[in-house]
Design a protein that fits this description.
With 167 residues, this protein is an alpha+beta fold. Helix content is 54%, strand content 14%. The longest helix has 33 residues.
Length: 167
């Protein structure tokens, strides 16, 4: 089963609420690819790269798997998309991409949103936030801005301390 990668977190819902409900009602397991698998592009030798839009569903029998697919399509069809573009300095975007993706993933899972970053070192300064409700999009933007402020401080402090100690 395939869905657009940017819609995976939205289909999952806040804290994977939608998926947990579908899994428990159909007695299946639903596996989504990592949200930023396209960014890292690593593939071991002699291995086949997984399609980042593909969702795997496993279950006891074919009926339960089909029921899970139907419920996923229902969630998808009821979904309303809210999009917010946020301007950030490209250097701060690169800092997040290089060292704070674990925090970004937590923000996505908590709010049931998706953040589209520009490619690393592209000097583009627009980040797009997708959500199912305006409130979730606003929370994601707020947490992303806090992450930008905190990541700059924590990366600058060790250098400041080194300079102080050398004088």
């Amino acid at each position: 089963m395939k869905f657009e990668l940017s819609l995976h977190q939205l289909v999952c819902g806040r804290n994977r609420k939608n998926i947990k409900l579908i899994e428990s009602s159909t007695n299946t397991a639903i596996y989504f690819p990592p949200p930023f698998s396209q960014m890292y592009r690593y593939c071991p030798p002699n291995a086949k790269r997984r399609d980042p839009q593909e969702i795997f569903i496993t279950g006891e029998n074919h009926q339960r798997i089909e029921m899970a697919k139907i419920k996923l399509h229902e969630v998808f069809s009821r979904m309303r998309l809210v999009v917010k573009d946020v301007a950030l300095p490209s250097a701060k975007i690169d800092t997040i991409l290089l060292g704070r993706m674990d925090k970004v993933r937590k923000i996505l899972e908590t709010n049931g949103t998706f953040i589209m970053f520009p490619p690393l070192a592209s000097r583009q300064n627009t980040v797009r936030v997708q959500a199912t409700e305006n409130l979730h999009a606003e929370r994601t933007v707020r947490e992303l801005m806090a992450l930008v402020r905190n990541s700059v401080r924590t990366r600058a402090l060790p250098w400041a301390r080194d300079d102080v100690g050398k004088r």
